[in-house]
Each structure stands twice: as C-alpha cells, then as structure tokens.
Amino acid sequence: MTFETQRAALADVVAIPVTPFAEDGTVDQGAHRALLRRLLDGGITTLTPNGNTGEFYALTPEERCLVTELTMDEVGDRAAILVGVGHDVPTAIASAEHAREAGAQMVMVHQPVHPYVAQGGWVDYHRAIAEAVPELGVVPYIRSAQLTGARLAELADACPNVIGVKYAVPDAARFAAFARDAGLDRFVWVAGLAEPYAPSYFSAGATGFTSGLVNVSPAVSLNMIEALRSGDFPAAMKVWEQIRRFEELRAANGSANNVTVVKEALASLGLCRRDVRPPSRQLPEDERAEVAAIAAGWSI
Question: Which residues of the sequence carry a binding annotation for pyruvate (predicted)?
C-alpha cells in the first residue's frame, strides 16, 4: 500500500476536536456531533478524535470507543480520520483495531506515558501497534527530544505503514535535524505544536499542523495553512499575531489550560459547556472574559 490518500490528508490542518461533556458528566453526543459538523462545514478535512485536546487521557476506554464511533458516523466520507490510541500495548492495539473496524484510515500513537522509555523500547512499542493494523497509516506523536531520527527510520523499515509524524518538541532546529536524519521525504511531517510553531516548522519541512484552536475558528487555521502553502510567511505571521494571545493563555503554566481555554471559547459562543475533567480545571471568572473577547473578535 502507498497510503497516498492518507499522506495527503496529513499535509493539512489536522483538527483535534474537543470532547464536550453534558451536565451529568457524560460525553454530550449531540454537542459532539454539532461541533464536528461545524468543523466540516468550515472546510476541515482531517480530524483526530481522541487527541489531547479531546482529553484522551481523561476518557474511559468505553468513552474513547464512543468518540471514535460518533466521529466516524457523523463524518462519513467528508474527512479523513486519524484516531488517537495509546496507553499499554494491548490497550493501544485494541483501540487501533477498533478504529480499523469503525472505518478510520489512520491512527496516531500518543506519546508513551511510562516515565522510563528506552529508544529501542519506543521502537518496540510503536512496532507492535503498527504491525497489528497494517492496513492503517500510523503516525507517531513525538514529544521527546531524546529520540533520534535514526530510530524513526528503523521503525519505518519494519513497518511501511508508518507514514507520518506529529512532531511536538518545541525546538525548530532540532525538528529540522530530526526530520533529515529520519528521512525528510519519507514521512509527512506534521507540526504537532499547532499554529504558534507552524511557520518555523514549515520553513524546516513540515507540510501540516495540528490545531485545537480550529474548534473555535476553522477560518483562522485555514488562513494560516493557505499562507504557508503559498510560501507567504508574512501573511502567516499576521495570523500568528492574531492568535498569539489565545495560544499564550493555552500554553501558560506548562499548558495547564490547553483544553480549558478552547472549551471556554466554545462556551462563550454557546457551542458546548466549558466543563473539563481533572487534571484540567475550568478558568477562573476573571480570565473568562478575555477568552470570550478573543473568540468574538475572530471571523467564525
């Protein structure tokens, strides 16, 4: 398999939908579907259910399956689906197999949560998952600056369905070196730290970027990727300036409010409740107005 369709889908805005919760704390299925439709109607064509902005690690196994199934049912053939999987190897494999059965085209393997990760063990972990679903494109989510590009190349030698990388180390120079050590043209490189890092990462070889902000304004994210695709970095930086404060609020205190700020913006627009699950927490009252003002000022 060449996975050309999947590769093309990764070279785009890779949206990470939120998982809205109802008043009783369960997944709000109606709001979830409505938010997905809003992304699709806004022109988004690649979605990652069960990503970090979707509070992957706060969902139960049953809820992660539900989110995958809701997404596949609502989206149909309107977008490519990259399902987030992770945790221990059997759980990750079961999630990947469920994604395949639901009709997804790809899986994104979350960064291992174990505090002790050997580079060879990283390869073993991803290889076990990739080999279980050879029909699916596999995208490792890399957050460790310790991993070398040679290890990714080793993984892809064993598993040709490893087709892309969500690279989320906040160092553009390291990304440029890593991508070239692994094989710049061998993988689709997705800037995994979203719009704030997209211009610098595109200059080094990325062709897509992930986004949580896209939940609030698909148009803003699409404006950035259109500018980057055309090589118009001044235009991309104008978008960067537009979203700077929003992303600073998300990144503050070790990204403590990464999801919270997105949900607060959506709540201010009447699109879902602001509820998040521990270890995230809702914004204090005095910060909500700033988020609402930013969201109201964007072209939605």
Answer: 53
Query: 53 among the known binding-site residues?
Result: yes
Segments in the chain forming alpha helices (H): 4-10, 29-41, 61-75, 89-102, 119-132, 149-158, 172-182, 198-203, 218-229, 233-255, 258-268, 285-297
Q: Which residues contact 290 (CB under 8 A, 6 or more apart)?
A: 245, 249
Q: State the amino acid at position 300 in one-letter form.
A: I
282: three-class secondary structure by DSSP: coil
- Read off the pLDDT band of 242 (50, 70, 90): very high
CA 93/CA 134 separation, integer angstroms = 12
Polymer length of the chain:
300
What is the separation of C-alpha 144 from the centre of its chain, rounded to a whole number of angstroms? Answer: 16
pLDDT at 262 over 70: yes
- For residue 4, CA distances in Å to 55, 64, 138, 163, 211 come to 29, 27, 13, 9, 22
Which residues participate in catalysis according to the annotation?
Answer: 141, 166
- pTM above 0.70? yes
One-letter identity of residue 261: V
Nearest to 85 by CA among 99, 70, 105: 99
Which residue matches tokens 């050997």? 118
What lies within 8 Å, CB to CB, of 24 at 6+ separation is none
Residues 104 and 83: beta-carbon distance below 8 Å: yes
What backbone phi and psi angles, to 5 degrees, belong to 142?
A: -105, 120
Instruction: Summarize pLDDT for 91-111 with one digit per residue, the tens.
Output: 999 999 999 999 999 999 999
Query: Tell me: the pLDDT tens digits for 121-137?
Result: 999 999 999 999 999 99
pLDDT tens-digit readout, 32-63 = 999 999 999 999 999 999 999 999 999 999 99
SS3 189: strand
For the four alpha carbons of 230, 235, 237 and 241, in that order, the dihedral sign comes to negative
